[in-house]
Specification:
The chain is about 35% helix and about 15% strand. By secondary structure, the protein is of the alpha/beta class.
Length: about 350
C-alpha cells in the first residue's frame, strides 16, 4: 500500500513499515504531482484535501495527523467510499498548555480585569481548558449547546453568560450545521455583547471569530489568536490588531505531534487488519503542571512557553504569509507541561 506522507511528521518511517511504501512531500503544492498512484494520503491540517485533489487518483484513505477535519471535503470522501482517519484529541494537552500560558501573559501584563472565564466548546480540549482554568482560580462557565443536545449529563450555559466573562476561550469545531453552527459564531452582534474589557482567546479555528467584525468594532477588545481565516494568507490587519498572535502552533508540542502520528498509525493498521509495529515513545521531558502552582504561577508558566515571543516575530515581519509558514515550521521545541 502506497502512502504519500507529509515529510514534517515525526516517526512515520518507524510507524509505517512493510507492507506500506512511503513517498514524501515537502510542500503542500507538490501533492497534486505525486498523489495519482497513492493508496493513502497522510497529511496535516495545512493541506486542503478537496475533490479536485482526489479525483482521478487511487486514494482509498485520507489520514490527517490533526484533531480537526475542516480542511477535508468529507462529503466527497463519503460519496466515493474513501475512509477518513484523524487524530482527534491528540493535541488536547498542548492546546490547554497554550491557553494557560496566554492567560498567564494576560494576567501578568494587566489585561485581565477579573476571574470569570467562559469556554466555548466542551470537547476534549475545551473540557481540559475549563479544568485548568478552575485550577488556577477562575470561575468557569461552559457554552456548548450542541453537546447539551446529545449528552443529557452535560448542561450548557446560555450565550448571555459569556457576555459577563472577563476571559473567553474558543475551542469549538468549525461547522455550519444547524441549529448551532459555529462558523462566524462571534459576528459583530455577538462581539458587541461581550464585556468591553474582555480578553478573547481563539485557539480553535479562524472562521469561528469573524475577523472583519473584529476590525469593525468601535471599541477594540483584547484579542489573542493562534488561528486565522485563509491560512497561510493571513490578514495583516488582524496581526496588528491582536494582543497575542501565533502561527497556528497551539497544538504543536513535541508530544502532541508524536501522539498524532501514533494514533493515525494505530487506526490505519486496524483498518487494513495489520499488526501495529513495536515502537518506543520519545522521552517526555515534561513538567507537572500542579507543581507550577504557586503565588507566582504566571511567571513559572511563561518560563516554559511565552506566546509573546512568536507574537513579536509575526508582528514585525514584512511578509506575514512567509513568516507564518516559517515560524510554524520552526516551532519544534515545546514540551507538554504535564503528562
Amino acid at each position: 500500500m502506497n502512502i504519500l506522507a507529509d515529510a514534517t511528521l515525526p516517526d512515520v518511517a518507524t510507524l509505517f513499515k512493510t507492507p506500506f511504501k512511503l513517498t514524501w512531500y515537502d510542500q503542500d503544492d507538490h501533492v497534486p504531482a505525486l498523489i495519482a498512484d497513492q493508496t493513502i494520503l497522510l497529511c496535516r491540517s495545512t493541506l486542503k484535501v478537496t475533490a479536485d485533489l482526489l479525483k482521478n487518483t487511487a486514494i482509498q484513505c485520507v489520514a490527517t495527523a490533526s484533531s480537526g477535519t475542516d480542511h477535508i471535503d468529507t462529503d466527497y470522501l463519503r460519496s466515493h467510499g474513501i475512509a477518513l482517519i484523524d487524530a482527534k484529541g491528540s493535541n488536547a494537552q498542548a492546546v490547554t498548555d497554550y491557553v494557560i500560558a496566554s492567560a498567564a501573559y494576560l494576567q501578568q501584563q494587566g489585561y485581565l480585569h477579573g476571574m470569570r472565564a467562559g469556554v466555548v466548546g466542551a470537547g476534549e480540549v475545551g473540557s481540559r481548558v475549563a479544568h485548568r482554568l478552575k485550577t488556577v482560580g477562575f470561575d468557569v462557565v461552559v457554552f456548548d449547546p450542541l453537546k447539551a443536545q446529545h449528552d443529557s449529563q452535560f448542561i450548557s450555559c446560555a450565550f448571555e453568560a459569556l457576555t459577563q466573562c472577563h476571559l473567553v476561550c474558543v475551542h469549538a469545531n468549525l461547522h455550519e450545521t444547524s441549529p448551532y453552527p459555529s462558523k462566524n459564531l462571534f459576528d459583530l452582534q455577538a462581539l458587541q455583547q461581550l464585556r468591553p474589557d474582555v480578553c478573547l482567546i481563539n485557539a480553535s479555528r479562524g472562521g469561528i471569530v469573524n475577523e472583519n467584525a473584529l476590525l469593525a468594532l468601535r471599541q477594540p477588545i483584547v484579542y489573542c489568536t493562534d488561528v486565522y481565516c485563509n491560512e497561510p494568507n493571513i490578514e495583516p490587519r488582524i496581526v496588528d490588531y491582536a494582543t497575542l498572535c501565533t502561527p497556528h502552533i497551539a497544538g504543536h508540542s513535541i508530544e502532541a505531534k508524536q501522539y498524532a502520528v501514533i494514533q493515525v498509525s494505530e487506526q490505519l493498521h486496524r483498518h487494513y487488519g495489520l499488526v501495529m509495529p513495536v515502537h518506543s515513545k520519545q522521552r517526555r521531558d515534561s513538567t507537572d503542571f500542579d507543581r507550577m502552582l504557586n503565588a507566582n504561577w504566571q511567571h513559572t508558566v511563561l518560563g516554559y512557553y511565552n506566546p509573546c515571543v512568536e507574537t513579536q516575530l509575526l508582528k514585525s515581519a514584512q511578509d506575514k504569509r512567509q513568516a507564518f509558514l516559517l515560524q510554524r515550521q520552526a516551532h519544534q521545541f515545546r514540551h507538554d507541561f504535564s503528562i
